Amino acid sequence: MHLQDKAVFTQYSGFHVPMNYEEKKVADEVMETRAHGSIHDASYKRQFLLIGKDSSKFLDALVTSDIESLEEWKSVETLMTNNNGGIIDILIVSKLSKEQLRIVANTPKVLTKVQNLLEGFEGDVRFEMAKEKFYFIFQGPECATYLKKFFHAIETLSSLCSKEYGPNLYEYYYYAFITRNIDTEEDGYSISCQQGLGLVYYCRRTVRNPKMPLIGLEAKECLRIEAGICLTECDIDEDTTPVEAELTHLISDRKMKDGCFPGSERILQQLRDGPRKRRRGFISEEGRLRKGDTVCTPAGQRIGYVTSATYSPIAKAFIAMGYVDEMHCNKTDVLVFNGSIRGKFHPFPFVSRGEPK
């Protein structure tokens, strides 16, 4: 399928994935997504299950969300942290039943971490890789209209809610596990299935309007940065806390009060006293910003660094995110990147949020 669309491949997260497509510009892929929609093959993500009566209790102690009180068929975006409060990864956790959780991770080290911790856990939990190896993200304002032609009542699925479709459900041929979530500030659905290429090929062959083109990693990165969303091991890592990364909205009310997750003492202290650095958005119309660029004041004082950058065809400017010393976060109107490019702070997101209709 990717070869038919003339994909140019690259290595990413241990997989051979499409970086872009020869017959399309990255800007066109981004514009199409914002205007109508697109499909991104995110099968490089890791999907696994925790099964057993103590599965929620086990995972609850490792993340910032309240997994034990999560309702069945609801999903939550959460942070897995280490004992120093650093971020291991951002996870999507779905509760299929009281005894079964489905987790989508961005990095393979989450699998190793979970399995190692299970060895010392006294309770009824077992680890199992998901049978569904494919993971596609449909995103854009018309994706619900598109997908309802194949999945019964999919447009009524609420944000961060999940649903199963299968051969004996709604007369649908393929099995698919679908979660509705806003992945790049646009309405979207993530679809896990065993026959992913067949599913996408069938969808694209059957429905011509609206079009749902495939987009590569470069366009996906642009959409991500426009939305101000962090990427694990790029914008966040095990030395970065949720407070520094401006991700405290992923900490539940109960854990914001009581802690009870790895590194909670340091994180709660930063909430009280403030961190030394914070993640901020940057924008420039003068020149391209790049990962690793220094961020300075007009006087030449180094105050931060860039972690992700791109050109936004929507904002028509060079945009980026990175970290700035706390004391300088709101004290300068002009920034200088890499010694010569002038720019300024910009709030997240860079592109207005598209809510599900």
UniProtKB/TrEMBL annotation:
| Keyword Signal part of the UniProt annotation | no
Residues covered by the GCVT N-terminal domain: 2-252
Q: Which InterPro entries does this UniProt record tie to the protein?
A: GcvT/YgfZ/DmdA (IPR028896), GcvT/YgfZ_C (IPR029043), GcvT_C (IPR013977), GCVT_N (IPR006222), TrmE/GcvT-like (IPR027266)
**MF GO annotations:** methyltransferase activity
Q: Which GO terms describe its biological process?
A: methylation
What are the record keywords, sorted? Methyltransferase, Transferase
| One Pfam family per UniProt | GCV_T
Tell me where in this chain the Aminomethyltransferase C-terminal domain is found: 277-335
The UniProt family comment states: Belongs to the GcvT family.
What is the protein name stated in its UniProt record?
A: Putative aminomethyltransferase, mitochondrial
Source organism per UniProt: Araneus ventricosus
